[in-house]
Every structure is written in C-alpha cells, then in structure tokens.
Amino acid sequence: MKTYDTLAAVDLGSNSFRLEVARVAGDQLYPLDSLKETVRLAGGLGEDKLLDEATQARALACLQRFGERLRGLSPGAVRCVGTSSLRVARNAERFLPRAEAALGHPIEIVAGREEARLIYLGVAHSLPASPDRRLVVDIGGGSTEVIIGHGLKPHERESLHMGCVNFSQRFFAGGVIDKAALKAAEMSARVEVERIAREFSRGNWQQAVGSSGTARALREIIEQSGWAACGITADGLARLRCQLIKAGHVDALDLPGLSRDRRPVIAGGFAIMAGLFAELGIERMDVAETAMREGILYDLLGRFHKQDMREVTVDEFMRRYHIDTRQAERVKQVALKLLAASGGSDENDARFLDWAARLHEIGLMVSHGGYHRHSGYILENADMPGFSRTEQARLALLARAQRGALAKLPEFSTGVVPENDRLLVWLLRQAVILCRSRAEPHLTDATVEAGSKRIRLGLPAGWLERRPLTQRALEEEAAHWHAVGTKYAFG
Description:
Layout: E1 6-12, E2 16-25, E3 28-38, H1 53-70, E4 78-82, H2 84-88, H3 92-103, E5 107-109, H4 112-124, E6 133-139, E7 144-150, E8 153-160, H5 164-171, H6 179-194, H7 197-200, E9 207-211, H8 212-224, E10 232-233, H9 234-247, H10 266-280, E11 284-287, H11 292-304, H12 309-320, H13 325-342, H14 347-359, H15 371-381, H16 389-400, H17 410-413, H18 419-434, E12 447-450, E13 454-458, H19 468-483, E14 487-490
Helix pairs in contact: 1-3, 4-11, 5-10, 6-10, 8-10, 9-10, 13-14, 13-18, 14-16, 14-18, 15-16, 16-18
C-alpha cells in the first residue's frame, strides 16, 4: 500500500469540527496544523431528528474552509469521520453529498463503538507507558464514549446517547441553571451510566482519563479556581456545582478557564461528568490533550504499515464464525483473478473484494437457507472495529448479492449501485459459482470484458464441457443480470 509524508484527519463532532494535519516520520506523527470551529451540529437537530438549514449552512461553510487547507493532499492521505449527530440525523443522506462536495473528500459515519476505539487510540498514544488499565471518558456534543484499555489496545467500549449539547438543550433551555434542573440532569446521566457500571466501575481500572472539550474545560475551571492541583476531582465538581447554581444563568458564569464558546454547553457537560464520577466511583481524572482526531491519524497510519484494524477484524470474524478457510481462500483467489483479468486495478476495490470473499459464508452460522441474507445482516449490523458504517454497508451489499435474484435487491431494482460495486458483485458471484464444488476450479486462464451494460466471461476451451452443472448455473446467472439491465455472455 502507498505511504504518505503528510496525513490529515477531519472530526465532524456534534459540538465542534476539527481538522488535524500531521507529518509522518516512521511510526510517529508530528502535528503541522490544527483547526477548530464550533458548529454545534447537535444543536440543529430538532425533535424530528432533522438537521435544520441554518446548522447545515454553518457546517458547509466550515467544511469549505477546511477543504481549502486540504487542497493538494492525496485523497488516500485524508480521512473524514462523522459521529453522533450524523448517525441520528434523518436527513444525513441528503446532507452528506453537499458536505463532501464542500470538503472535497468522502465522509465516513462511524458507529458509537468505533468512535470509542478511535478516541482510545488517540488518547493512548499521548500517554506514557503504564501497566495500569485505563478508563477513558470522552463527553462529546451528542454522545459520550467510555472505554477501558491497556497500552494501545481497548478492551471494553461503549457509547452513550448523551452529550454536552443535547443535555444543555434538554435541561438548561435558554441558559437557565437552577438546583432542580441540575439535579434532574445529573440523575438522567446516572441512569444512562448505570447500565454500563458493572463493566466500567472502579474495580476494573486503575487510572481515569478524560478527553475532548468538556473534560479540558472542567479541568481548567477546577485548576484555575484552586479547587484541585491537577485534573478533575470529585471535590472540584462539587464546588463547581455550587457556582453553577449560584450564577443561575450561563451568561452570569464568571469562572476562570471557561471560554466564551464553551459557556453555553458547560452545564450539560458538567452534569454528565458528575454522573460518571458518581456511578463509576471516579475520585480523580487526568485529562489528555489528544482525542479522536489523533486516533483517526494513527489508525490511518496503521493501514499503511500493515497494521490495518480492518484486517484484524476480518481475521477475528473468520475465527468467531468458524468460516471454512479453504473455501474462502478459493473464492478469494478466483475473484481477484477475475478482477485482474477485467483490468480493474483500484487497490481499495481489490481490498473490499478480498474481505467480502473471506466473509461471504459468515451467515452459515445462522442457517444454511438464505445464508447470504444472514451474511449481509451480520456484516451490516455487527460491531466491526476499524470499519465505518459506509464500509460495512458496502461489505453487506456484496454478501447479500452473492447469489439469487438481483432484481429482488432494492439497490439493483432502483439502479443505485455504483458501477465499481456492480462489478465487484459480479466478480464475487462468479467466484462463488466457479468454486461451488468446494474444490479448486483449476481455472488457468480467463478473460473478462466489462462495460456499463455488458459483461463477457471468457473461459478456457473445453472447461465448461467438463462441468455441465457450472454451465447451467452460469446460464441462470446470465438471466439474473439480464433482469437488472446487464447483458452477460460467457463461453
């Protein structure tokens, strides 16, 4: 895989958008540039879960500015990740094409646990080596990620649907802070944390670390107020609670270390942190200077150094679901051979075809009948570290479409399948057919001619005559492709 001297990460958080650019030196990253804008994406989500036009406009303007900084960087050196608000926004699919056009790069939406993994990766790289298990807490604008890990490896990951923006809107509307509202917010946070308390409570870790804006703001307030020498403490939070109630309104808050852009969401962030301290038995928390954007960079760097977390996940799924590795390898080799014959050379497409071939029979663990549908469901909905939601959906499409009538699949019946994905589906389907006997097909030579509405598979002379069952399967396959507007010939 190609490597790059400069990498960039874009974190589309629910409170702030951040851009980080770093220089690569071996296995290390050295910051070159950092940009942050407070967009408050979560604040633009109404009760109907639609992102309002004003918030979309702010986001697009920010992304245009970020896009200027990214201009000239190779697409492979840039990764852009959307989080909680884009996960829940019902109109995200309509907003994303405009956002990608403004930024100039594709945007991936990651699941909550994948967000947690990236956060831990970013935080862990900034901390000194330690034998201790660490609890990492990241209170974002729309969600809170909680992770326990050791060294660079996370062991437990959870994402809770509560963030400083949505809690501030819900409990402190108009900026009003009173004792009853603060108590209700803290209690709501404790109820949310209670469901994960058993796995994340004090006996499961030795050091607590906070990351991102809320944790850094609380640390600055507590330290500059003289309530703690270092970090966030339970006593410091108790003193801050009194000051919040005394102020009565966010505009009246006069606290050292509290910035103007953090002031509107500090009460919500405080309530969540107080709930975490109470339910998980935290007495003191250190605060890291790094967060998810650094995790995105290190994850991207790992892909170039043959440490791609997605490869680890695929291998683990093959073990977990007891996949027939010899059959998976046969299907993979045939599919990649046909891809090469087609003239397709996109490295990313080859990688997805490889993964899909290795995982295409994952649904057999559920049932043999309709196993391709089970495979698709698992790949789309399972927790797959390293994969974004978009990537999982792509794998799921390949798995679901590996056999059967293509016209029954909404993606094919409506014609929304991208041309390269259409080719990957065809390649995987042919590989599955040619390896149907679960033996080496001995396909020494093959040719592939692929166009937008036409595909031809050329096979060695005499090969089909010795395999009448395969010939019949290919005839049925041609009918399936004809039904979705593609002429398929073989011989």
